[in-house]
Design goal:
Strand order of the largest sheet: 4-3-5-6-7-8-9-10
Number of helices: 3
Shape: globular
Distance between the termini: 16 Å
Structural class: alpha+beta
Largest sheet: 8 strands, mixed
Order of helices and strands: HEEHEEEHEEEEE
Oligomer: single chain
Helix content: 25-40%
């Protein structure tokens, strides 16, 4: 079984790949306002859906709390997802938006991954295991057909089939 940190990496990079497709076509991306007045786009929802799929396929008993869809599941472990942190930056064409994935167990975050897809950077940490940063190239596509290489951490080709 894939460990939680690698799963968080894979989920964040799956979301990053979706986000980058939308980032390349911002002019056609409609914007909506949420009830709190913040902006949400189809990209936010699609990135969250991609991340949720990766997590649900690998850990169907875990709960997921996402910014766009709220909480699903009632597992004792909960994945926390911000699909596009910095939507205002994203829609302005600024490359500093992030994809965030974390795992909470017993009220404590034990794994976290923050990817900045447009800059090809990723940060990760695991409770008791330190925090790291690396560059990446070629986020995996939704069909899992591309390999992702992360400097400093081995990362296998993803096969979602």
């Amino acid at each position: 079984m894939e460990n939680d940190l690698l799963l968080a990496h894979r989920a964040a990079l799956a979301g990053a790949a979706v986000g980058l497709k939308y980032f390349a076509t911002l002019a056609q991306l409609p914007r909506e306002l949420k009830s709190d007045g913040s902006v949400v786009t189809e990209a936010d929802r699609a990135v969250e859906a991609a991340i949720r799929k990766v997590l649900a396929d690998a850990r169907p008993d875990d709960a997921v709390l996402g910014e766009e869809e709220g909480q699903s599941g009632r597992g004792s472990r909960r994945w926390i997802v911000d699909p596009i942190d910095g939507t205002a930056l994203f829609i302005a064409g600024d490359d500093r938006w992030l994809v965030l994935v974390a795992l909470e167990e017993a009220g404590e975050v034990v794994v976290g991954v923050a990817a900045v897809p447009a800059q090809g950077s990723i940060w990760w940490a695991q409770r008791g295991g330190g925090a790291f940063r690396a560059d990446f190239s070629g986020p995996t596509t939704s069909d899992g057909s591309r390999s992702t290489l992360i400097d400093g951490m081995p990362y296998a080709e993803v096969d979602s089939g």
